[in-house]
Automatic annotation (TrEMBL):
<dbReference type="InterPro" id="IPR010982">
    <property type="entry name" value="Lambda_DNA-bd_dom_sf"/>
</dbReference>
<dbReference type="GO" id="GO:0003700">
    <property type="term" value="F:DNA-binding transcription factor activity"/>
</dbReference>
<dbReference type="Pfam" id="PF00356">
    <property type="entry name" value="LacI"/>
</dbReference>
<dbReference type="InterPro" id="IPR046335">
    <property type="entry name" value="LacI/GalR-like_sensor"/>
</dbReference>
<dbReference type="Pfam" id="PF13377">
    <property type="entry name" value="Peripla_BP_3"/>
</dbReference>
<keyword id="KW-0805">Transcription regulation</keyword>
<keyword id="KW-0238">DNA-binding</keyword>
<protein>
    <submittedName>
        <fullName>LacI family transcriptional regulator</fullName>
    </submittedName>
</protein>
<dbReference type="GO" id="GO:0000976">
    <property type="term" value="F:transcription cis-regulatory region binding"/>
</dbReference>
<feature type="domain" description="HTH lacI-type">
    <location>
        <begin position="12"/>
        <end position="66"/>
    </location>
</feature>
<dbReference type="InterPro" id="IPR000843">
    <property type="entry name" value="HTH_LacI"/>
</dbReference>
<keyword id="KW-0804">Transcription</keyword>
<dbReference type="InterPro" id="IPR028082">
    <property type="entry name" value="Peripla_BP_I"/>
</dbReference>
């Protein structure tokens, strides 16, 4: 019995195209993939029919068949700060570099802002079957959950702090050294009473605070005062303004945990008529593009975001290929500008 031809118009699947071309579905699949196993004339005829009838093969289905999705999960865990937004300038900066590197290599991105609701939040992501690998932006307060998954799931790279003997592959600067560089910069300006503004529940910011303490201790100065500031933009400015109002001349140097905190601090000081850096010097941490564009220009610690993003993607591709890419610890750099 002769099979009926598909109705005129758009072809919906490979089986319909195969009936129209008078060949097997396997031949159509190979022809559309450009395989030389199908002779040139047949291959070109099938491809022409596909174009004529508006047929495009389901790439996701093909990828799943070969256990390759060509999709990378970019995950931002926010266990320490549930109100922080992806519009945060740091997230936008590193996301841009990661997206460039991934798409240039033929990968799509699945972006997730995750509020950890259980110990297995990361396991659910890596076991979803939807991803070839995962890039985590930050460790938040989820180090143990990340470490547990890293022991069995290899194609994962984390932007964050490296710890000796860790299973997770990390890329990032030496945050403690960065905090020390900020402290040494402030002390060299003559600052003697230091404060740290940031959320030290987060691993990376806590290490920056400890580095500031190292600098103060080496100079024989009192321990810096940690002042809690949420990273969520909707409350940050208000909290910083409250801290600044309580200084009463007791603080002359501020190391902020991020550039965004530093920028809001400079604004709060200006609102009270406090001169930066004449009365109080301020350093940031990130070296975002905005740091050089605001007035006064921000003295900060560079995390080498672009270089780090490229290193993350390179390490992930190595791990997808079965290689054991090591962690990368970059050296932070003091960028001297106007605020300290």
């Amino acid at each position: 019995m002769t099979q009926s031809s598909p109705p005129p118009g758009r072809i919906r699947n490979i089986a319909e195209l195969a009936r129209l071309a008078g060949v097997s579905a396997g031949t159509v699949s190979r022809a559309l993939a450009g395989k030389t196993l199908v002779n040139k004339d047949t291959r070109e005829r099938i491809q022409a029919l596909a174009r004529e009838h508006g047929f495009r093969p389901n790439q996701m289905a093909r990828r799943l068949r070969v256990q390759e999705t060509r999709v990378i999960g970019v995950v931002v865990p926010l266990g320490h700060e549930q109100r922080q937004h992806l519009s945060d300038p740091f997230f936008m900066a590193i996301l841009g570099h990661l997206a460039d590197a991934l798409t240039e290599n033929g990968y799509d991105i699945m972006l997730s802002r995750v509020i950890p609701d259980a110990d297995d939040w990361l396991e659910r992501i890596v076991d979803s079957g939807m991803l070839d690998g995962v890039l985590l932006i930050g460790q938040s307060n989820q180090y143990d959950a990340i470490e547990q998954v890293a022991k069995r799931y290899r194609p994962m790279v984390v932007w964050g702090s490296n710890r000796p003997g860790a299973a997770q592959c990390t890329v990032g600067v030496d945050n403690r050294l960065g905090g020390r560089l900020a402290g040494e910069c402030l002390i060299a300006r003559g600052c003697r009473n230091l404060a740290f503004l940031g959320e030290i529940d987060a691993i990376e910011l806590n290490e920056r605070f400890l580095g500031l303490c190292d600098a103060a201790s080496a100079a024989g100065l009192p321990q810096p005062k940690p002042l809690h500031v949420h990273l969520a933009s909707d409350v940050m400015a208000e909290e910083i303004a409250a801290h600044v109002a309580a200084f009463n001349g007791t603080i002359d140097g501020i190391a902020a945990g991020s550039d965004l905190i530093a920028m809001n601090t400079v604004r709060a000081l200006a609102d009270r008529g406090i001169v930066v850096p004449g009365d109080i010097a301020v350093t940031g941490f990130d070296d975002l593009p905005l740091a050089e564009q605001i007035i006064p220009r921000l003295t900060t610690i560079s995390q080498h975001i672009a270089e780090g993003a490229r290193a993350m993607v390179g390490a992930l591709f190595e791990r997808i290929a079965g290689e054991d890419a090591p962690s990368v610890v970059m050296r932070p750099e003091l960028i001297r500008r106007d605020t300290a």
